[in-house]
Amino acid sequence: MLDKTKKDWWKSAVVYQIYPKSFQDTTGSGVGDIPGIIRRLDYLQTLGIDVIWLSPVCASPQVDNGYDISDYRDIDPMFGTLADMRRLIAEAKRRGIGIMMDLVLNHTSDRHPWFVQARQGRENPYHDYYVWRDGQPGRLPNGMQAVFGGPAWEWVPEVGQYYFHQFAPQQPDLNWENPAVRREIYDMILWWMDQGVEGFQLDVIDQIAKDPDLEITCNGPRLHEFLRELSTETFQKGCLVTVGEAWGADIPRARLCSAPDGSELSMVFQFEQMVLDQQPGKEKWDLAPLPFVKMKQSFARWQQGLHGCGWNSLFLNNHDLPRIVSRWGNDGAYRVRSAKLLAIMLHGMQGTPYIYQGEELGMTNIRLPIEQYQDLEIRNFYQKRRAEGCPEEEILRSIYAKGRDNARTPMQWNAGPGAGFTTGTPWLPVNPNYREINAQAEMADPDSVFACYQKLIALRKRYPVFVEGDFALHEAEHPRLFVYERSLGEEKLLVVCNFGDEATPWKAPDPWKNAQVLIENCPRQEGALQPWEARILYCGKQ
Ligand code: NOJ
């Protein structure tokens, strides 16, 4: 168990992300709930994780699956009650697991009482909690677009103004320039700290300091001032882990955000590697192959760029990204082996690893008829492209590859009805491959993807070089090999991955010839790496 009184305890931690709607249903409603998470805590303890990042469970109209909060201090009835949440915190703690809440601080739901008041008139004390600009019906303040499509402005006749929303119209942006808003947020966070949570994930945190007049969304001029104040007023009063979602972060900015003095956050989620298969000026939906060499060089830059002066988060999946085994691996013939390679590649690096539910089972993307998709981003995209005359098959191809619902299908617990997720009708279909890919089968197989994750977590706890070691990329230009070395004094690791369906000639370089193999994903052969083969070699103290 980690010593969580140590300031940097989260550097040795492994985090598991739960998307509550799809994790475990206990009522037959077809939607996962908090008692379901409690039921599965033993499973998570067996996996060996230290922290659960819980995607939003606060009261919400669920326009964007909880990322539209209408009451920060209550639990959505769909998931349970505040008493359930307190029980979850306590039960998790008993197993050495902390709960990380997902805080959506950039915007609220349009049904949040603050916004209900704010839209009543310019004189209302809550009006200035949000971002308003003058205009006339049909004459928008400017041409800014919302992330989910359409203009970023919505007209309110009662006020005679437009409000600003970077996401859906039902997600009005909060006005961080207003000190009263910031105070409300700090008090709410302190309240959650009192409930016993051990960390926070901060949704789109780099977008809080927006300036719509200058068309600035990310990385606004006051971002770090706001983050420092937030941290001083809240996080620094405890011993928490904090991670900010920051699509706009480059290395210098991530260094500021994750400075070792703890003045801002523990770390950020940056997305450089995750958007490499997106051409400049194109949308994520416009498919392009992964530039492999750029990808590993990008990881190397981040590893070296934050070593000793910041901290990386390590992730390949979350609820907004397609399943990595379908995206970068081979979810057909080499599903198991490539899922393990991706895990080994990532967990050999320096940073705090995040495992997204089902990743440890090698869960894959799904293909659904268009009417079964639930995500508003997918629906908006489909309608927009249809209206532009794009053929249905082409749109679906993009959705199959990149749609967010790929990651949101229910957790596959067993081969029984509803995959053990629900006794009712799941809110989003279960992936039909659940009979083959499920937790029960994985746990029974010592050679499973699950066993590989379990082992990687245990290795991180046992060998300090995983946590502290520096990073050097080998074979930097090789089109298929991702090889890197980590070292900490006399302890060294060599992580070797053959990325692709072809065998690749390879011989361990000198000091590594007789090194101990800490983990591998297939039988070794002299002189070559098999398709998707990966292993970690170790030299040093035993
Ligand atoms: C990022 C979240 O991860 C995503 O799911 C959500 O739609 C947006 N932020 C808006 O809150």
Short description:
Belongs to the glycosyl hydrolase 13 family. With 542 residues, the chain is α/β, with parallel strands linked by helices. The protein contains 16 helices and 20 strands.
What does this structure look like?
The mean pLDDT is 97. The protein has helices at 34-39, 41-47, 82-94, 113-118, 179-194, 223-233, 251-257, 292-306, 324-327, 335-347, 376-387, 392-402, 405-408, 439-444, 449-462, 464-468, and strands at 15-18, 51-54, 58-59, 71-75, 98-103, 132-134, 153-156, 161-164, 199-202, 241-245, 267-269, 313-314, 352-356, 470-474, 481-488, 491-498, 504-505, 516-520, 528-529, 534-539. The two termini are 21 Å apart. The longest helix is centred in the middle third of the chain and has 16 residues, at 179-194. It is α/β, with parallel strands linked by helices and 542 residues long. The chain has an 8-stranded parallel sheet, with helices on one face. It has a 5-stranded antiparallel sheet with strand order 14-15-16-20-18. Strands 6-8-7 form a 3-stranded antiparallel sheet, with no helix packed on it. The structure holds 1-deoxynojirimycin. The site of 1-deoxynojirimycin has 9 residues, from loops. Residues 64, 67, 104, 167, 203-204, 245, 319-320 line the site of 1-deoxynojirimycin.
